[in-house]
Amino acid sequence: MSRMAGNSSTVKSASSIRALLYLFYAIPVLFILGLGGYFAYNRLSGGLPIREIFARPFATVSLAGLTANLFTQGGALRASGNDVFIEFRDARGNLANVGAVTFELGLSMPGTVMHSIGKVMPTATPGRYRTTIQPMLAGTWTAKITIAGPRGDAAASLPVTVMP
Hints:
By secondary structure, the protein is an alpha+beta fold. The chain folds into two domains: 1-49; 59-163, Immunoglobulin-like. 26% of the residues lie in helices and 43% in strands. It has one helix at residues 2-44; strands at residues 59-63, 66-72, 77-78, 82-89, 100-109, 112-118, 121-122, 128-133, 139-149, 152-163. The strands form two sheets. The chain has a five-stranded antiparallel β-sheet, with no helix packed on it. A five-stranded mixed β-sheet has the order 3-10-9-5-6, with no helix packed on it. A hairpin with a 2-residue loop joins strand 9 (139-149) and strand 10 (152-163). The longest helix is centred in the N-terminal third of the chain and has 43 residues, at 2-44. It is elongated, with a radius of gyration of 29 Å. The N and C termini lie far apart (80 Å).
């Protein structure tokens, strides 16, 4: 009789270990399936939320016979992080492709100069470019835009205010 009782506890122990192993393997699989479903839902439903860019430029500067308009969310640069859109327009108001663009912010303080540089990428629309910039400090910075391409090489600087 005692032999049978020992076998039943061994069987119960083995089945509980087997159940724990199934659970151990099922949890990561369920997590991956859930994560994949989340990304699929976002892709099919139009993607992640898009930041609304202000309709009026927060800064405008002329260079190489073109007007460069700078846009961002809320109409002003923030110290935390900014998506900045730069568009170049010719004298007739048409978008103009300028080739390579650089955008840099500089802040002069006693004994030091801070820089915030964003990599500028062209968008799907020729003449419009996008960068992300994170100045980290509020104040009056100097923005420098440089172009190099079919319209020649040019640079322009302008003061911009970074809000806290």
